[in-house]
């Protein structure tokens, strides 16, 4: 069995609540942000479950994207790996993956707890507070295990979330450098502003092997500020500068993609740095938007799914917009059923 797309990330179960303004204040959270839980945030998970009406949704940035790609591709096209515990949370993740046709080769650690993400919704904003738990105990050796090694070898495309760089840079470097050597396509998503702020060294190491970088406007600004770029608000200039950074396999010019939510998406390729492209987003009305959690992951799923399917860069961005738009009309990072046509 081989899969076209191999995805790696932190598997998480989202614990989602609405009207969370008081929670933002209590835990000093920003309305539209993603952070790793500190000690002061530890009680939020029990508080959500005990004192709020919660919705459980399969999460983890790369897993959301993998399910999105699986949603639009033929069966047995996408496989995902990450570390989970042998608990009920992991079983919920497996059920959600099955619905979209995503196969997983989890590293299952006995007696450990699967990671969780508190999702605090306020209007159209979402604040994510993640406790990685066993997700940060992923072992690089899992990639060379008899079960997983043939899947890595057989894949032509790879996708990894930036969150993985908080604990598994060596693993990402192995995957990305091998992909680069074999002229396969490696895609990295920045995932959150704090990755660009506090893990820029690790991000730059992996960028050397990255063919396609995906981020949003906040992540672009965070990277530009950390790198000392002249204008941290100029997305086209930031994309140009990142596209021009050193690359181990220069025969595949790097592509940089910055989304801006409901606003246009900016794309710059290293071989045509002075020809940035702007793709408008089909805007939804306020009453059509149910939940923005996972919209960026859905865009990435539509995009990478289209690339795997052999579509052009233009077609892939449009597919990303379609799947992102469909996702925000669902609760949490989920996709509509019956299936909609994306490609």
From TrEMBL:
Residues 23-339 form the Carbohydrate kinase PfkB domain. GO terms for biological process: AMP salvage; purine nucleobase metabolic process; purine ribonucleoside salvage. InterPro entries: Adenokinase (IPR001805), Carboh/pur_kinase_PfkB_CS (IPR002173), PfkB_dom (IPR011611), Ribokinase-like (IPR029056). Keywords: ATP-binding, Kinase, Magnesium, Nucleotide-binding, Purine salvage, Transferase. Its EC number is 2.7.1.20. Its cofactor is Mg(2+). The active site is at residue 297. It comes from the Eukaryota. One of its GO terms (cellular component) is nucleus. One of its GO terms (molecular function) is adenosine kinase activity. Pathway: Purine metabolism; AMP biosynthesis via salvage pathway; AMP from adenosine: step 1/1. SUPFAM superfamilies: Ribokinase-like. It catalyses: adenosine + ATP = AMP + ADP + H(+). Belongs to the carbohydrate kinase PfkB family. ATP dependent phosphorylation of adenosine and other related nucleoside analogs to monophosphate derivatives. This is Adenosine kinase. It comes from Crepidotus variabilis.
């Amino acid at each position: 069995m081989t899969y076209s797309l191999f995805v790696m990330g932190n598997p998480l179960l989202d614990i989602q609540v609405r009207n969370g303004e008081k929670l933002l204040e209590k835990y000093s959270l920003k309305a539209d942000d993603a952070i790793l839980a500190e000690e002061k945030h530890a009680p939020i998970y029990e508080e959500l479950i005990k004192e709020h009406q919660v919705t459980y949704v399969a999460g983890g940035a790369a897993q959301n994207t993998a399910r999105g790609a699986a949603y639009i591709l033929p069966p047995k096209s996408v496989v995902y790996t990450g570390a989970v515990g042998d608990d009920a949370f992991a079983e919920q993740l497996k059920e959600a993956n099955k619905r979209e046709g995503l196969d997983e080769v989890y590293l299952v650690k006995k007696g450990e707890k699967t990671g969780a993400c508190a999702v605090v919704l306020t209007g159209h904003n979402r604040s994510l507070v993640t406790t990685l738990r066993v997700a940060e105990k992923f072992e690089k050796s899992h990639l060379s295990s008899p079960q997983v090694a043939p899947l890595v070898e057989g894949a032509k495309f790879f996708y990894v979330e930036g969150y993985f760089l908080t604990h598994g840079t060596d693993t990402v470097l192995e995957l990305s450098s091998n992909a680069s050597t074999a002229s396969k396509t490696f895609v990295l998503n920045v995932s959150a502003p704090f990755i660009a702020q506090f893990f820029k060294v690790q991000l730059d190491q992996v960028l050397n092997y990255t063919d396609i970088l995906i981020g949003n406007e906040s992540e672009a600004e965070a990277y530009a500020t950390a790198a000392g770029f002249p204008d941290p608000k100029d997305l086209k200039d930031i994309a140009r500068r990142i596209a021009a950074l050193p690359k181990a396999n220069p025969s595949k010019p790097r592509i940089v993609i910055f989304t801006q939510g409901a606003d246009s998406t900016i794309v710059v390729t290293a071989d045509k740095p002075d020809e940035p492209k702007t793709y408008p987003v089909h805007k939804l009305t306020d009453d059509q938007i149910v939940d923005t959690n996972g919209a960026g992951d859905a865009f990435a799923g539509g995009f990478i799914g289209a690339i795997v399917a052999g579509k052009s860069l233009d077609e892939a961005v449009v597919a990303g917009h379609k799947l992102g738009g469909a996702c925000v009309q669902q609760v949490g990072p989920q996709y509509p059923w019956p299936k909609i046509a994306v490609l």
